[in-house]
Specification:
The protein is of the alpha/beta class. The chain is built from 10 helices and 15 strands. Helix 3 crosses helix 4. The chain is globular, with a radius of gyration of 20 Å. The model has no long low-confidence stretch (mean pLDDT 95). It comes from Pengzhenrongella sicca.
Length: 326
């Protein structure tokens, strides 16, 4: 192994141009840590927020990246054998310590999930954070059971598409939204039973299909549409606030009686690697390999294209999950 590696370094917050590819020392794993040879990593809006200086945690200079997929190169504590395929995510990765935008990354062993798959790295790199967020929003947030109905607000995002896929696999009837009529086919291809065009009054459209309201919903757009999403859910149902694609995070002068319909429960999900058990990951990979599930890969980039990748993410033109393959 060489002494240096290529990595994306951010010295301080700013626009996409602050993402600089440099040669830096290869990190060394201590007992309890794992050194991963990164083959691919996904792009996430939380990394965009961190790069802008909008994140609630983290420090500069930093190698960003909250996830990575690759192969174990060293694990001094013996937790995993060299050569094992793994994914790693969250837990301060790319914020409190250097993350996945590099040829190598060192992470705590508890954040590493082993798997076995012959899928391409461009596909594998798209999965960790996307699947963890979609699975956690269902298993921890909404907690639906087979036969129930689920609304996904922000359905053409990578997490939204994964939610449609998981929802159908788990026996749910999925209603999913897009602002563009031309993208309804994308929702249906991912597994949505009903593709709705978001005109700001999704609750009325939902209740034309499910008069009593859906059993659960995952909010991926933000607080600017949350009130309408709450009105789409039946009494006793649950809305899980998971995403903020609109970059609108907080509710000024929140008055619960104005916002919350009687009996509708509001919760939130922001997960960790522990929320994605290895069997769940392996089952999903096997479903993808068998053609029972799909991974919404948008654009694939090289490490040298990281600035353009962030520009595309800001412009909303990636069309699924952006992935960098090394």
């Amino acid at each position: 192994m060489t002494a240096t590696m290529r990595a994306v370094v951010v010295d301080g917050p700013g626009g996409p141009e602050v993402l600089q590819v440099r040669d830096v020392p290869v990190p060394r794993a201590e007992p309890g840590q794992v050194l991963i040879r990164v083959h691919a990593f996904g792009l996430n809006r939380s990394e965009l927020h961190f790069r802008r200086g909008q994140a609630s945690s983290g420090s500069f200079p930093r190698i960003p990246g909250i996830e990575a997929a690759g192969v174990v190169e060293d694990a001094p504590g013996g937790e995993l054998a060299p050569g094992t395929q793994v994914m790693a995510l969250m837990g301060g990765m790319g914020r409190a310590f250097d993350g996945g935008y590099a040829e190598h990354v060192v992470v705590p062993a508890a954040q590493v999930i082993p798997f076995s798959s012959e899928l391409p790295w461009a596909v594998l790199g798209a999965i960790p954070e996307m699947l963890q967020t979609a699975h956690g929003s269902l298993a921890v947030g909404v907690r639906p059971t087979a036969g129930q109905t689920l609304l996904v607000r922000g359905g053409t995002s990578s997490v939204g598409l994964a939610l449609a896929t998981l929802g159908r696999l788990r026996g749910l009837t999925v209603l999913s939204t897009t602002r563009s009529p031309e993208r309804r086919g994308l929702l249906e291809g991912a597994g949505a039973h009903h593709a709705l065009v978001d005109d700001g009054d999704v609750a009325s459209q939902v209740r034309e299909i499910v008069p009593g309201g859906v059993d659960g919903a995952v909010e991926l757009i933000g607080v600017n549409v949350l009130c309408d999403t709450l009105r789409a859910v039946r009494s006793g149902g649950t809305v899980c606030f998971t995403g903020m694609l609109s970059d609108e995070w907080t509710i000024p002068e929140f008055y619960p009686l104005d916002w919350l319909p009687n009996g509708v429960r509001l919760t939130a999900y922001s997960g960790e690697a522990a929320d994605l058990p290895a069997p769940v990951l392996q089952d999903f990979l096997d479903d993808v390999a068998r053609g029972r599930a799909s991974v919404p890969v948008g654009r694939v980039y090289r490490l040298d294209e990281i600035v353009q990748a962030h520009r595309d993410m800001e412009a909303g033109v990636v069309g699924g999950k952006g992935v960098v393959v090394l």
